[in-house]
Amino acid sequence: MVVDSYDFWLFDLDGTLVDAEWSYTRDVFDRVGDRLDRPFTDREAEVLWHGLGGARDDQLREWGIEPTEFWPAFHAEEDPQIRAEATYLHEDAADLVRSLETPVGVVTHCQSFLTDPVLQHLDIRDWFDTVVCCTDELGWKPDPMPVRHAVDELGVDAQSTGVLAGDGSSDVGAAWNAGLDSIHVERHDPARRGQCVLGDYRVQTFSDLDE
């Protein structure tokens, strides 16, 4: 089985292990739209929240929105506790992580002021040996540096084989750039994503790995 093939595992967080209720996402984008005087459709909110169009900054520019204006507004409208209470755990991901007997970590674009309350609210922080939040200093997936930082924190030896699982092309790219295998879990209709994300393994749920 794939699960038994690796010495350590890394996971993306949002869209891979957890997701937020749509009502929370819609409310955030309504308030961000008010700040920017530019409303967001349901489709635009979905694309940006889940990164369906690839790199979010590129998507923002395509829509005529400067990322340097969008992200401060977006983070200003995110309430950590409300976000945590609106977040749920994907059961297939929970089953997989609980079954692993190897070092396990998270590498996420979600910032620490949001990540920490989510992990605490879901009571899953102790599932992970390290949690790495991407930053401008550390880099953003598909940059391999956050992944390499997580591997260093896991303390695995240089000959260990590892895999990174995520729901986006940036996760697959980060895995490959860091010399790891990749698992793409497609939690959205590929037609809505508008592109096909390749990976060493492609599954709709982590339960499919057993097959």
Automatic annotation (TrEMBL):
Gene3D superfamilies: HAD superfamily/HAD-like (3.40.50.1000), Putative phosphatase, domain 2 (1.10.150.240). It holds the Pfam family HAD_2. GO terms for molecular function: phosphoglycolate phosphatase activity. GO terms for biological process: DNA repair. InterPro entries: HAD-like_hydrolase_sf, HAD-like_sf, HAD-SF_hydro_IA, HAD_2, HAD_sf, PGP-like_dom2. Belongs to the HAD-like hydrolase superfamily. This is Phosphoglycolate phosphatase. It comes from Halogranum amylolyticum. The lineage of its organism: Archaea, Methanobacteriati, Methanobacteriota, Stenosarchaea group, Halobacteria.
